[in-house]
Amino acid sequence: MEAEAAAIAVINKTVEIAGNLILETGSRFYHLQENISWIERQMRTLQSYLNDAESKRSTSHEAANLIINVRDLAQDVEDILDIYLPEIESHNTKGSFQFFKHASCILCFGVKANSFALEIEKIKRRAAEIEDSRRNIGITADSNAIAGAATDADLWDRRKLFLRAPHESKIVGRQNILQKLKEEILSEDKGNRIISVVGPAGVGKTTVAKRVYQKTKNEFDVSATVYVSQEPRPEELLLDIAKQVELSEDKIKEDLVRNLYLLLQEKRFLIFLDDVWDFKTWDSLSNILLTNPRNGSRIIVTSRYKDVGRYIGGESSLISLDLLGEKEGKELFFDLIMATSKEALVPELRDIGEKIMERCGGLPLAIVLVVGLLRARERSIHAWDQVLESISQGVEKTCLEILALSYQDLPTELKPLFLYFGMFPADHEIFVSDLLSAWVMEKLIKVDGPRMQENIVEANIDKFISRNLIQVSTTRLDGRVRSVRIHDLLHSLCIQLAEDSNFFCTLNKLKTVGTSATVRRITCNSNEHADENFGVPRKIRSLLCFGGSHEVLLNILKRNASDLRFLRNLIIEIEGGKAIHLPIEIANLSGLSYLKLTAYLASGILQA
């Protein structure tokens, strides 16, 4: 992921620089333009290999190394651009007449341009080695392979088994939604109707839809339930439906699509499409399923994405599932705990159980999984305490297998933007303005002009909201999103993926692995504490600090400000109105583009 982020940043940066240079007249920038254009082309080429390399990294040491090499190369190119181009462009701004008027300018420009060219030659040799390596291990461009395909297939198999299992799962806090869904299905309206149940992964969409499907399917001539998955094959889905609605083998062999269409025209059907990911899947099925518009058939769709549900059935078709409140979460947790034993819980166990339930964050899937852990252990304070201590690792890991599918489905350019949410503390109110500054300053998005910046950032925020990866926290008076939050489990996913790929590093992680030259972003929250010997990597672009570590970090910045020439984004948030002394040396952060301080400033830079 850091390889993708670095490549994206370099591509956007080179496009911007090349655009400026092309406007120049004369030939003095010709070789510079040529090198910049080569960088852009090469980064796009290397980026095109990353999907295939990611899909093979778990089983191929060579593929994992290739990703690391691409990341390191892209980061080094970014460093070279940040070192040389500002100085070269400073000569550019003087204009041709002023430039040639002074011999010192010509000499200085020549030295810088020559040094830049030498660095690019080194990069070209490394890029050639990467090309040789990827050919040797069979990495191809623009692959649609998805990492962990075998694991995902196993997960989908379990989902299919659950989907058609006869048992009924415990449902709490969804009575109104269950009733509404049932009324929609059994409505006397003779027109065909689609009901789209949407919500985050693990919130219980399938459980709710399946319950109503099972209760109402006998009211229809034929029925079918199909798990769609992230990479469906329409022919297999149609074959699955055909078998369930009892289309004969002869008809299937003769012409599956035509004969299924004719059968559904004559029958009043109920079809349940579980976990639809995109528009294309629906488009491949709709011509067969939307047959007789007046026979009273019903289609239930579940999707993680509101825009998919809206596309399939329209705005009026949407039924949204949110996280459970504290009351409903406790009810589900303790109902499941007591389902296998009528023995009352002692107060101590109930207290531990409530703490465990709180860590599940209102996500039904997490609650069900943790209850499974508790059922496998004796009902003792010691055993439950062990689960409480390990829940952030074991249960989250299992949930993340499902949640990660939402991440894998993101377009390449959105993945580093999503990981940025993990740099803020869990359950933190994340302001769109902070994301705008970070994404723009690090060149993770390409924009032209301040107004365009805001529009593009808001459009990306809307994409994450539509995919249920983040939730709106506050809005502006004009209805635009002001701040967002991310669920704890998705936040954990961000941190896990970011640390695995070196996209960013938490303070605790950095202290265990030592200062790394490849670290570009560091975040620390109120639960982490730095010591005076902590060294900030010199090439970091973003540093975010929330709470307890601010005093030590400010002292570190005071000592090292002149060395942090690449630092672009600095956010320090101190809760509780604490006073801080901001060192005047922060003014020496020459590359700083965005500084946010949320605290009472006792003294320092504001007096300078």
TrEMBL record:
**Which biological processes are named by the entry's GO terms?**
defense response to other organism
Superkingdom, taxonomy of origin? Eukaryota
What are the record keywords, sorted?
ATP-binding, Leucine-rich repeat, Nucleotide-binding, Plant defense, Repeat
- UniProt domain AAA+ ATPase: residue ranges: 191-373
A Pfam family annotated for this UniProt entry: NB-ARC
Q: Which SMART domains match?
A: AAA
The molecular function terms in GO held by this entry are: ADP binding; ATP binding
Query: What InterPro entries does the entry give?
Result: AAA+_ATPase, Apaf_helical, Disease_R_plants, NB-ARC, P-loop_NTPase, RX-like_CC, Rx_N, WH-like_DNA-bd_sf
Q: SUPFAM superfamilies per the record?
A: P-loop containing nucleoside triphosphate hydrolases
Q: Does the keyword Nucleotide-binding apply?
A: yes
Record's keyword annotation contains Membrane: no
UniProt family annotation: Belongs to the disease resistance NB-LRR family.
Protein name (Swiss-Prot/TrEMBL) = ToMV susceptible protein tm-2
